[in-house]
Amino acid sequence: MNSMASTHSQTVNLKQYRRIGGKWxxxxxxxxxDGKPDPxxxxxxxxxxxxxxxxxxxxxxxxxxxxxxxxxxxxxxALDAWHLQSGILSGAVEQPEEPENESEIGTRTxxxxxxxYLRDVKATKxxxxxxxxxxxxxxxxxxxxxxxxxxxxxSDAMLLFEAGRATGLNQKTINKRVIVMLxxxxxxxxxxxxxxxxxxxxxxxxxxxxxxxxxxQFFANCNAEERLLFQVFLCTGFRSREVSTLTWADIDWxxxxxxxxxxxxxxxKNYEERSVPVPRALIDVLKIHQKESKSQLVFPTxxxxxxxxxxxxxxxxxxxxxCKVIALRAGLNCGRCKGKFNAKKGKTKKEQIQYTCxxxxxxxxxxxxxxxxxxxxxxxxxxxDIRSLQIMLGHKNINTTEKYLKSLxxxxxxxxxxxxSLAAYM
Length: 426
Known about the structure:
The chain has about 425 residues and is of the alpha+beta class. It folds into three domains: about 10-90, no CATH class; about 110-185; about 210-370, Orthogonal Bundle (hpI Integrase, Chain A). It has helices at about 75-90, 110-125, 125-145, 155-165, 170-185, 210-220, 225-235, 240-245, 280-290, 320-330, 370-380, 385-395, 400, 405-420; strands at about 10-20, 25-30, 35-45, 45-50, 55-60, 65-70, 250, 255-260, 275, 340-345, 350-355. The strands form three sheets. The chain has a six-stranded antiparallel sheet, covered by helices on one side. A three-stranded antiparallel sheet has the order 7-8-9, with no helix packed on it. The chain has a two-stranded antiparallel sheet with strand order 10-11. A hairpin with a 3-residue loop joins strand 10 (about 340-345) and strand 11 (about 350-355). It is elongated, with a radius of gyration of 29 Å.
């Protein structure tokens, strides 16, 4: 029997839409002793059961027509909605404005939910976050054959874990994509509850850094502009977008600091501005570079030898390629990376070329975020405290910064092992 607002002249029923025996169906919410609904449990085949695992709905008649609408996935949300609707029907509460284009009960599609979620992300998050979420949800949709949000359950999340492993994604990436899916679908009313042991634990990768001898050889093979670019990466720990959007106005010449500030088309990660002190020698080189620059950007796209409309005030989108080209030039590639890439052959045709990083600038050991790892590790080795490093890196959570401590402890352990009696037996 459904719960009813017996104190009012019009009845408001509270029920739950849930999966029972492999089928989705509505079941009534139980009642407390005073006759009001108690959404902590539902009635299934005449017996009370825990209400966890479904979406609650209100059901009532108005102007001779039956109406129903979702009211949350938790008992508190359901009870609050029941009280509100009961008050509206009794005249004790003013009727709020109805939202436009409200989805019919049980017919909200996954595609609509994804579009609505991405619209909200675009309005509240940065462009990079929107792009990442859009990619993650597209991947989810390619593996999910269901059409309605309310048909989703735990099995759909487990399917994504399986699909991610089958396609060779690392566990951290898989977990992130599942989290994005859960956020989007739960916001649309889905009830997807995972069990305690469902989340596979990702393997924590060791933080990779550039060694002093590598840095010395790398910089020895740079021209002046290349050297300055990667000196900024090394001495600031900035992310690639923070370097590519860097302007002369971001530099505090007197204080010897370089800042990360919002600009048209760019917002700092976590929306947090920060300013990082750098060596005075770097500030001096930047001053010389500014005198020769015609752009407001510190590192604009270099001019093209045959295209006069190329470069200027455009952000440099080729910094990763520059890094790999210099590494090849310096003889620092590992020589083990292999693969294929499409190369232009004339104006329209392309041909697939096999490569090894012995001859091509495609070594996986050289990437931009590794400069950031090197910056953080060297500061910790110099005695900087972890809290200050968190601020300088712009990390929202200190747990993210602490991964550098683990790497540092392993280095300390290595020194102790080398000095231990074990080494004497070698």
